[in-house]
Amino acid sequence: MLSIDLNCDMGESFGQYRLGRDEELLDYVSSANIACGFHAGDPATMRRTVQLCLRKGVQIGAHPGLPDLQGFGRRELAITPAEAYELTLYQLGALQAFVRAEGGSLQHVKPHGALYHMAAKRHDLAAAVAAAVVSVGAELTLYGPPGSELLRAGAAAGLRTAGEAFADRTYRADGSLTPRDQPRSLIASAAEAAAQVERLVRQGAVLSVDGEEVPLAAETVCVHGDGAHAVEFARDIRAALAQCGIAVRPLG
């Protein structure tokens, strides 16, 4: 039976501010990427999200980002490879402590936002992120864009890697995501998102915004937890996949 890992970025509330419907989302996804306090999240949110994942049997991953709460980690910062290593290691260690305290285990790492995209393009940053992951646990899986420097660095460091696609974002003809500041960067229909995931699983490709078929080898698909209709997207995607014989399962 065909299958795909459905992951979601979550744990992004901070103090009195609530973002996302994490508890509902965990009924539909197979793995969670939990914010570690730099771009979003706080200790109480991290602990609560870990507890929810363990209660619902969802794979736990760390979602380290750049130290930019105001920009939600989506603005590029001029960091060195040493800083990339240190800020990644710091965040992974924090989440791992909560996971172990609750009797669970950390399964994967997926950088967030600008850190994700910077490491996808720059080998030095990718190698630093991969080295931080290895320092925390060589058994962890590193998520990243298919064919990226991030996955190449992960593989070179001896990590298991997983190519990631997005259910709620559109792609350009070169296989890159349509930038968020451009029209049609987000998929607004759950049906369209489900169709994109089904095409990805069955054909190893997505359609670009211009209608071209773009090869994309991915083992995991992301739904953003901060999206206005994230719960409905995750629910409808899972239902559509079940109808066409594709199971939602965590990696490994």
UniProtKB/TrEMBL annotation:
Q: Does the keyword ATP-binding apply?
A: yes
Q: Which UniProt keywords apply?
A: ATP-binding, Hydrolase, Nucleotide-binding
- Record's Pfam families? LamB_YcsF (PF03746)
- Which reactions fall under this protein's catalytic activity? 5-oxo-L-proline + ATP + 2 H2O = L-glutamate + ADP + phosphate + H(+)
Cross-referenced NCBIfam families: PRK05406.1-3 (NF003814), PRK05406.1-5 (NF003816)
How it assembles, according to the record, is: Forms a complex composed of PxpA, PxpB and PxpC.
HAMAP family from the UniProt entry: PxpA (MF_00691)
Q: What's the protein here called?
A: 5-oxoprolinase subunit A
Native organism: Paenibacillus athensensis
